Amino acid sequence: MDPPRVPVAVCESEGWFGFMVEVLYPTAHRVTLAPGDKVSRVVEALPPSTRGVLMNVNLSYTAGFLEPDAGWPAGLPVLNGGAIDVRKRTLHTQASAVGVPSARAAESGPPDERLIVKTTLNYAGKPERLMRERWPERARSFTTDISDRVEYVICRRDEIATTTWADPTLVVERYITNPDGLFIRAYVVGPAAVVTLAWASSDIKKLSLPQSDRRDYYFWDATPLGPTSAVAARALAVARPLASALGADFCGIDCAVDADGTIIPVDVNKTPYWGHPRQSPVLAHLRHGFNTLIGDFT
To answer: Which of 33, 149, 160, 282 is the most buried (most CB within 10 A)?
Structure first.
């Protein structure tokens, strides 16, 4: 059953139409933010009926984006307010800290091992580029990690320049694959989670690209709802502690699977994009998670 849409406000920057929060709450009160905006301005803009605030600033690093010149109203949940850094370098560090496998590659190793060079920023830093164009000075502290690279590069270890390993705007990861072409996306929204197992033959695997098969598995906390999968349960056991370590109340986590079946997180998105369809059992289940975080159980 599709649960009711609780009155929420979405504080967003470059993160509205087509993003998961907009698809779930299309009539939400929308507060558009700029770098350096003040909490006091946001609080003044909230309708009295607001039951929760969803932060959806579409940048990988957002520490200080909103100036805390005032407190939030007592008892008002501010979801993803603590999710301020999902850069891939941070992902590697936090994965190791919570005992989750990391994709980070070592500079030394077999010269012919296939590795992948990525930007530390999500989406190759495209949101940061847009932010820099719009607010050149105000966005400076959020755009310093922009790289000249805009594409992933798969290559051998001995083809990677020493300067690439030292470049703070880039990360070098193991190129992780398996014979079946399996990859995983886990949506986590408080106690609700949906783990999608998908199969594709392409070198770069995304849910937005063609797949040969796809299956969704639903969970409440760690309990499966309906048909289950041991692989999906293991993926959730990777995703949940990582989301918590990164301060994310809601997020999408992409995982690769190696030939031994080890599940390795490769991307965390605190502003997950959804697109279409705009109604689905997945969305309905995740809305239950949002309602629980907000404290509305109707």
So the answer is: 33
Other C-beta atoms within 10 Å of 212: how many?
A: 10
**pTM attached to this predicted model:** 0.95
Q: With 90 as the cut, is the pLDDT of residue 205 above it?
A: no
Confidence label for 97 from pLDDT (cuts 50, 70 and 90): very high
- pLDDT exceeds 70 at position 297: no
Higher pLDDT, 250 or 202: 250
What is the SS3 assignment for 280? coil
| Residue of 290, 265, 208, 243 lying closest to 22 (CA atoms) | 290
Give the fold, CATH level 3, of 177-269: D-amino Acid Aminotransferase; Chain A, domain 1 (3.30.470)
Strand partners, 223: 220
- Interatomic CA distance for residues 22 and 8, integer angstroms: 11
Joined together, the tokens standing for residue 142 give 């959020």
Domain locations along the chain = 8-79, 114-174, 177-269
Q: How many CB atoms lie within 10 A of CB 50?
A: 18
Q: What are phi and psi of 90, to 5 degrees?
A: -70, -40
8 A C-beta contact, residue 235 and residue 229: no
Beta pairing partners, 240: none
Residue of 51, 44, 59 whose CA lies nearest to 78: 51
What is the DSSP-derived secondary structure letter of residue 35? T
Quote the tokens at residue 171: 């990360």
